[in-house]
Design brief:
Blueprint: H1 7-22, H2 27-46, H3 50-76, H4 95-98
Helix pairs in contact: 1-2, 1-3, 2-3
Length: 100
Protein backbone atom coordinates (compact mmCIF):
# COMPACT_ATOMS: atom_id res chain seq x y z
CA UNK A 1 0.00 0.00 0.00
CA UNK A 2 1.38 3.41 -0.94
CA UNK A 3 1.47 6.46 1.27
CA UNK A 4 -1.40 8.94 1.07
CA UNK A 5 -0.63 12.13 -0.88
CA UNK A 6 0.77 15.08 1.04
CA UNK A 7 -1.22 18.21 1.68
CA UNK A 8 1.00 20.08 -0.77
CA UNK A 9 0.36 17.49 -3.51
CA UNK A 10 -3.40 17.73 -2.99
CA UNK A 11 -3.33 21.55 -3.08
CA UNK A 12 -1.18 21.51 -6.20
CA UNK A 13 -3.61 19.16 -7.94
CA UNK A 14 -6.53 21.34 -6.81
CA UNK A 15 -4.90 24.47 -8.26
CA UNK A 16 -4.12 22.68 -11.52
CA UNK A 17 -7.69 21.47 -11.87
CA UNK A 18 -9.11 24.93 -11.13
CA UNK A 19 -6.73 26.55 -13.62
CA UNK A 20 -7.68 24.03 -16.28
CA UNK A 21 -11.39 24.44 -15.50
CA UNK A 22 -11.09 28.20 -15.91
CA UNK A 23 -9.50 27.75 -19.33
CA UNK A 24 -12.73 26.48 -20.92
CA UNK A 25 -14.12 29.05 -23.34
CA UNK A 26 -17.68 27.79 -22.91
CA UNK A 27 -19.42 29.40 -19.91
CA UNK A 28 -21.48 26.33 -19.01
CA UNK A 29 -18.56 23.89 -19.15
CA UNK A 30 -16.30 26.31 -17.28
CA UNK A 31 -18.71 26.81 -14.39
CA UNK A 32 -19.62 23.12 -14.24
CA UNK A 33 -16.01 21.98 -13.98
CA UNK A 34 -15.11 24.64 -11.42
CA UNK A 35 -18.05 23.51 -9.28
CA UNK A 36 -17.18 19.84 -9.80
CA UNK A 37 -13.54 20.43 -8.83
CA UNK A 38 -14.51 22.21 -5.63
CA UNK A 39 -16.93 19.43 -4.71
CA UNK A 40 -14.33 16.73 -5.38
CA UNK A 41 -11.72 18.36 -3.19
CA UNK A 42 -14.21 19.06 -0.40
CA UNK A 43 -14.87 15.33 -0.37
CA UNK A 44 -11.14 14.58 -0.25
CA UNK A 45 -10.72 17.06 2.60
CA UNK A 46 -13.56 15.48 4.58
CA UNK A 47 -12.23 11.94 4.16
CA UNK A 48 -10.27 10.49 7.07
CA UNK A 49 -9.31 7.05 5.69
CA UNK A 50 -5.80 7.31 4.12
CA UNK A 51 -6.42 4.55 1.57
CA UNK A 52 -9.64 6.23 0.45
CA UNK A 53 -7.83 9.59 0.17
CA UNK A 54 -5.19 7.89 -1.99
CA UNK A 55 -7.81 6.40 -4.32
CA UNK A 56 -9.69 9.73 -4.56
CA UNK A 57 -6.42 11.51 -5.33
CA UNK A 58 -5.53 8.99 -8.06
CA UNK A 59 -8.96 9.40 -9.60
CA UNK A 60 -8.57 13.21 -9.53
CA UNK A 61 -5.20 12.90 -11.32
CA UNK A 62 -6.86 10.85 -14.07
CA UNK A 63 -9.68 13.39 -14.25
CA UNK A 64 -7.15 16.20 -14.69
CA UNK A 65 -5.70 14.58 -17.81
CA UNK A 66 -9.18 14.22 -19.30
CA UNK A 67 -10.04 17.77 -18.27
CA UNK A 68 -6.95 19.16 -20.00
CA UNK A 69 -7.78 17.40 -23.27
CA UNK A 70 -11.38 18.54 -23.06
CA UNK A 71 -10.34 22.15 -22.41
CA UNK A 72 -8.16 22.17 -25.51
CA UNK A 73 -11.00 20.88 -27.68
CA UNK A 74 -13.40 23.38 -26.11
CA UNK A 75 -11.02 26.25 -26.83
CA UNK A 76 -10.89 25.18 -30.48
CA UNK A 77 -14.68 25.01 -30.84
CA UNK A 78 -15.79 27.39 -28.09
CA UNK A 79 -18.53 29.33 -29.82
CA UNK A 80 -20.04 32.69 -28.96
CA UNK A 81 -20.02 34.45 -25.61
CA UNK A 82 -23.27 34.28 -23.63
CA UNK A 83 -25.14 37.29 -22.27
CA UNK A 84 -24.45 36.23 -18.66
CA UNK A 85 -20.68 36.31 -19.11
CA UNK A 86 -18.66 39.29 -17.99
CA UNK A 87 -17.38 41.36 -20.86
CA UNK A 88 -14.16 43.12 -20.03
CA UNK A 89 -14.23 46.75 -21.10
CA UNK A 90 -11.13 48.28 -22.66
CA UNK A 91 -9.02 50.37 -20.30
CA UNK A 92 -9.75 53.66 -22.04
CA UNK A 93 -13.53 53.35 -21.54
CA UNK A 94 -13.66 52.41 -17.88
CA UNK A 95 -15.67 54.89 -15.79
CA UNK A 96 -13.05 55.15 -13.04
CA UNK A 97 -10.42 56.16 -15.60
CA UNK A 98 -12.64 58.85 -17.15
CA UNK A 99 -13.12 60.72 -13.86
CA UNK A 100 -9.39 61.42 -13.50
Amino acid sequence: MSNPPSRRAILSLYQSMLRTSRSFSSYNFRNYFIRQTKDTFRAIQAESDPSRVQSMYSEAVRDLTVLRRSAIVNQLYGGWRLAVEDVKKPEMFRADKLSQ
